[in-house]
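ok so heres the complex, three chains, lmk if somethin looks off
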Amino acid sequence: MRRAAVVLICWGLWLGALTAVQAVFAPKLIQVAIPAVASAVCVLAGLVVWALDVRQAREERPQLAYQAQGERPRLITDSSVATVTLVVGLALALVGAGFGLWLILIGAGIAALGVGGVVREQLARSRTLQRKGSR
Amino acid sequence: MADARSRPPGGVTVNAVAVPARVASRSLACTDHKRIASAACMAAFVFFLAGGLLALLMRSQLAANGGVVSQQTYNELFTMHGSTMVYLVIVPVALAVGLYLVPLQVGAAEVAGPRVALAGLWMLLCGGVCMWSGFLTSGGAAAASWWGFDPLSDSIHSPGSGMEMWIFGVMLATLGQILWAGCVLSTALRRRAPGMTLMRMPVFTWSMVVTCVMVVFGFPALLLALGLLWAQRHFGGVLLGGTGAVDYQALFWFYGHPVVYVMFFPFVGMVGEVLATFSSRRFFGYSAFVVALLAFAGLSMTVWAHHMYTFGVLSNKYFALTSTALIVPAGIEYFDFLATLWRGSLRFTTAFLFALGFLVQFLIGGLTGVILASPPLDYGLNMSYFVVAHFHYTIFAGSAFGLFAGIYYWFPKLTGAMLRERFGKLHFALMVVGTNVTFFPMFILGAEGMTRRIARYPASTGWQGLNILETAGSVVIALSVLVFMANVLLSLRGRRGAGDDPWGGHTLEWATSSPPPRHNFDALPPIRSYAPLLDLREAREEVSG
Amino acid sequence: MASTAHAYQHVQGIYLPIAVGVFVTVVITLLVLLIRGARRRTPGRHSQALVLEAVYAAALALVVAFLLWVTFTAETPIDRTAARPGYRIRVIAGQWSWRFVYPNGVSVADVSTWHPAPAYVPMGTEVEFVGSSEDVIHGFWVPDLHYQRQLVPGYTTRFDLFFPTPGYYGGVCSVLCGEDHSEMHFALRAVSHQGFQEWLTREAARQGVSP
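and the predicted structre for the whole thing:
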């Protein structure tokens, strides 16, 4: 699984190498800066994925046998009204940037409701997981 | 929804428990990647029809050479046509098909970050509504082209809230696309079933991986550009005179060229799957194809300033180098496509025909792209109808054909019903005729000096004949879309059952029911190559033969 | 002499036949494969040819190198502005007009028209244009010379044009610039050096500027 990070790291380096070729062509700063930032962020993201995979592998090794017995259920989120509320709130707030503070405030309020809902859903999820896992 | 725990011999068990949900919330707020993707495809189709209507209006205007709409309205039409097709139709559809299929193709029970994927859908919807509501404002919709380039888009030259709504709409839609790409990418990289190594991922999944990498690391440039544009409109002094116009376009095209490949790679992947399945043989040159895709995606992030050759500000030769170098990975892809047909046992289904249409017509778009990549030629053709013809050959004659190949191929998987082949072939024939009659004459008009984005042209140019021909072609395209819609409706009403695997597919999505269950798989076959189902079939043949 | 029209014709003369050749080759190959594949019952299983693909990729790289050589050798002279141009003309674009200003003060303006008054230029020598824009980005495009440059506000854009033959060269704004974009035409008339000087003197007298 850890090899997945290699895709991002190698690809980021490839983009970096292509960007470096610009040195031959007397480039303007902006044409180097944009792809350089993108390639750096890509390599960083690759390192993050690497770290996540290493951690996951360490945590899951003891559980793999457990999983093979078909005991550890995987929870699938079925729906999330809170997420929709959050997005609609954010969209209204964004549009408010063109139409005035009142709309920003309404949007922010709806978005806050959405955030609360998402937190509630997450709590419910971890409760369910505990219950199923301990069964 | 119950636990699913059947276990095949040598296979892998998938466990899934779904949290029960109320019916009302399930349709609007369902976090099933398949439902999100289907909803996105339907929304995108509505936007496609709307954008298509704008195109028909534009074509009427050009056939009549004026008189249908005013120049200002015409500017709104092509701005919204381009914006709709790019931001709300092709990119969302490309990502939505990935959102549907990638978890299935890698054997995952669900997408990584289902809530994030749901958020992406709603951002797309909000973005689309926001962008189109510009037509309701007193000043009309945005009219500064789908690039929205500064200074034409600033508060002096584009006052009014239509432009403002466009900025917010594009931002929302783009943000949603970045979220989707993140979900699909991490599903492919971190949620693969045991046995599904990187080099066993199907061709389509690989095409989505490179697509999503470009979205995640390229698209934020557009958000930045639009943020700067918005700040410029409200506070001024952000995009400073001179460098500001160049900086905006540099940021925009750093999004704007990768996006061209975001509208290409997924369809390359679809065509690859369709060709392999209907040649009844393994996709040829898999590993070379994967490497070519990755190299292609890297190059396509460094070609963007070929849109700015005629500025004469950035290093044209560097971008000519990278743009022309695209020949190498593109050539490998075409080689693999043709080699897949080599020694194949071909079945000429509608999906296969659309894939062939993609191969031939995209080639015209690709080869004219090589021509435009050469600055001395671009100086003579940039901003002309030659460019319009070129990118419609890539996006419509290419990608849209690839998309329809994918639709005819996967529709049974999505719905459990087969699309009708006869209607499909009529749809294909009309679309080939319509597409080429509409877009090929544009090459000629462009080379003769017809500028894009003009609402009228002097009669002395003699361009009206070809323009009338193009408009006739666009009517044929509209007819073909009607045939397609009739096909979908008829096929859904009088269902012809598809079964799990109507085509003899190679990849994991054909190993589950049609449509797949909420948790995607009750059981997975063993995965020993990038075509696990073909492996099983070949093993069976060896035993029996 | 860096003639943009000549550079375009030269590069096109190499690129276009190659493009047509590639298209025809692919389509014929495809047809052969389709005809043979339609009859075959048992598909082949050979699915890898790494060496062949590597050789093929190397061949493609050679094609790229050749195309770039053609492009770069044609581009270099037309990107360069001559150190001593035969003549220098300022061109100012605005919504929605073109203004050509000559060193002696003579100017020609075309405002939102399909029937522009031609600005005269000398043929057979390099004419340097010093372009600028007053508001948004405009595109200075002369289709018959196969050449255009974008005039970006805040930038001074210099480029040389070479008019090989006498006559009328129509021009348009190629970059969307707002409401009257379709009407933003201009025209250049290339005449002999002597004819150009005569026109300049005549115009100077007519416009009341000191020659």
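quick notes: Residues 71-105 of chain B form the longest helix (35 residues). thats all i got rn
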